[in-house]
Design goal:
15 helices; 9 strands; Rossmann fold; single chain; 359 residues
């Protein structure tokens, strides 16, 4: 191998560009752990108001050790996640930094994503093992930070789009929900999407299903806290066998590609819908052309898919392994295999495609 590389000419400009990228990636990779630490200790939230702090002041406010806090602050300043004022040796956050790092119900809960990243790193030995064996690795087998991180990362996207853009883009669905409908949220996780719909459409009844019992328990707790437990019901059930009939609306949020048998899930959704029912499928935005997905967003999705999505699918019956960048063509094929006759892309965002399927 070394001889083969030595005999191939090196383009110094390309080498330098790759090294610059590698240095940036190394900084981002190491800093990921510090984002989780800052989130756990409340360091970002303590700085959210934009007031300047010395390291000692921030340590006192958060009950942490000053020397560690100073190093953490310097790393974040180097990452441009906080600001440093050399004139008075203080640190602060801009409104933009505060929104991304300390306010989970706004545009993005960035620390939430890094809790998921930390979980993946903790599982890397197991994932390396399945590369050799070809076995799957179930969602439930991951370190617990993945479940919290996934909810926190996706929830702001749902808050921004689900009831204001995605559901209104469907034919006649919003009117049904406002009048009172039966809704199935399949693969609901901690129930972020279910509870958001329940709060927006108080006349409708919602049923959230997920095969992961710990997630369903967390969803039940959140339903009680949100005071919607009388019309939001969570139950442990797989996508191919969740209970109930005559649902007016069913939804799958960022999970169809994780399923071992997505076509089987589609068949069961069809059998569970009312004749005039609608199925909404929200999937990561991806082109059917692989080359078009080789960009920064695609890098995130393909990496997450390697660690979580494909292993989860291969751990289940059939093991279709669609992956997070399956694209519209493959999703359409799966839905039509399930017996649906109408399928269209209703809307999209830079991160998601929203499909509408009807019997």
């Amino acid at each position: 191998m070394a001889t083969q590389v030595a005999n191939r000419p090196i383009d110094s400009e390309k080498m330098n560009a790759l090294l610059h990228q590698a240095v940036a990636d190394m900084g981002a990779a190491v800093h990921a752990a510090l984002i989780v630490v800052g989130d756990r200790l409340g360091l970002y939230s303590a700085m959210a108001d934009g007031e300047p702090f010395t390291a000692a002041e921030l340590a006192r406010r958060t009950g942490t050790f000053e020397r560690y806090v100073r190093e953490w602050l310097n790393a974040n300043a180097a990452a441009k996640y906080i600001e440093y004022n050399a004139a008075n040796d203080t640190y602060s956050m801009t409104p933009e930094q505060s929104q991304l790092l300390s306010q989970g119900d706004t545009a993005m809960d960035l620390p939430g994503f890094y809790h998921a990243v930390a979980s993946c790193m903790k599982d890397e030995e197991k994932i390396a093992g399945i590369f050799r064996s070809g076995k799957g690795f179930g969602w439930h087998e991951h370190e617990k930070g993945l479940f919290e991180g996934t909810e926190r990362f996706f929830r702001p996207n749902y808050l921004a789009n689900l009831t204001t853009g995605w559901i209104p883009a469907l034919d006649g669905v919003e009117a049904k929900l406002r009048d009172g409908a039966r809704v199935a949220d399949i693969g609901c996780g901690h129930g972020a999407s279910t509870l958001l719909m329940a709060k927006t459409y108080p006349k409708s009844e919602f049923f959230g299903f997920d095969y992961h019992d710990a997630s369903i328990q967390r969803a039940k707790e959140k339903a009680v806290a949100a005071d919607v437990g009388d019309r939001v019901h969570f139950e442990v059930a797989p996508a191919q066998a969740f209970p109930g009939k005559d649902y007016d609306f069913a939804a799958c949020f960022d999970c169809l590609h994780d399923m071992g048998d997505p076509a089987g899930a589609a068949r069961h959704v069809l059998q569970s819908l009312a004749k005039s029912g609608t199925w909404m499928i929200v999937e990561p935005n991806a082109s059917d052309d692989l080359a078009a997905n080789l960009n920064p967003i695609g890098r995130v999705f393909y990496s997450a898919s390697t660690m979580c999505c494909v292993p989860a699918s291969l751990a289940q019956e059939v093991g279709a392994g669609l992956g997070a960048q399956a694209g519209e063509k493959k999703i359409r094929e799966v839905v039509m295999q399930g017996g649906f006759t109408r399928f269209r892309r209703a809307t999209e965002t830079p991160f998601n495609m929203v499909f509408e399927a009807r019997p």
